[in-house]
Amino acid sequence: MTTTATVRAPERRRDRVRRGVAGLMPLWFWGIAAWLAAGFVIDPPRVVSVAVSLLLAGMAFVRPPRVAHDPVEVASPVRGRWTALNSPADQVPSHGVRAYGQTYAVDVLLPSPPGTPPVVPWTGGFARPETFGSFGLPVHAVADGTVVRVVDGRRDHRARTSWPALAYLMTVESLRDLGGPGAVVGNHVVVDHGDGVFSLVAHLRRGSARVTPGQRVAAGDVLGEVGNSGNTSEPHLHVQLMDRPQPLRAAGIPFRWRDARILDDVQDTSRATTVRTEVTPGLPAAGQVFEA
């Protein structure tokens, strides 16, 4: 792992408080649900109802402070040829939100066959995860470190790749924040790489974890397999770097994959109708295909 970031200054009390509030995000969402339910029973004055609702909503959307950090150079978590999605090469935050430490996260999955149109069908869309080529492929550690967290028991659900399936996905996913990080990122492994840098690989296959908390790993060691657990539409790998081991309290850290070669003459337009022609070494954009 290579980083040129300066030594991190002691965190201000205000920022520690923000991390603490953000770390309780599921509690605030449960509070909103409980308060709305209580309103039908106790019928509080309107001003009280609005004030409490706004307070809980405000707390629920507190996020950890942003951190200034140069990109950290690590190894790719996958081998072979892959396509990127939701990449920080296109936008930051890459997934539209900074929650769960995913400001600079990227999703990867196997490229679609050439000529596959970017069409979402109106029928089907609930295929078993085993029918996808990426399902079960190995996921590797991006750098030397110590495993600090392993979640391995969440089920791999069916795909959500049609309009009705996506509507179902959005309905279900709107409730996942109530279940905390595990409900969102599914089965996952967090590794401490030192210098305040942690990696998280998410949506792993149920029962595929090859490591346990406290275990030392080297870059390239297999951590688990690509799965379809948590908030996913189809089997893929979500990977990110962050500055804390707890996703709710963490701020994202930018990265570069030193062993990822972006193929500037190959594009996966089924994943991004407009694919960037610019190449950022080690950081594939959505629809760009890379080999590692």
Automatic annotation (TrEMBL):
Protein species of origin: Cellulomonas wangleii
Gene3D superfamilies named among the record's database cross-references: Glucose Permease (Domain IIA) (2.70.70.10)
Domain M23ase beta-sheet core: 184-247
Claim: Transport is one of the keywords in the record: no
UniProt keyword Transit peptide present: no
InterPro entries attached to this UniProt entry: Cell_wall_metabolism_enzyme, Dup_hybrid_motif, M23ase_b-sheet_dom
Record-annotated membrane-spanning stretches: 21-41
Domain of life assignment: Bacteria
PANTHER family: MUREIN HYDROLASE ACTIVATOR ENVC, PEPTIDASE-RELATED
Protein keywords: Membrane, Transmembrane, Transmembrane helix
Protein name in UniProt: M23 family metallopeptidase
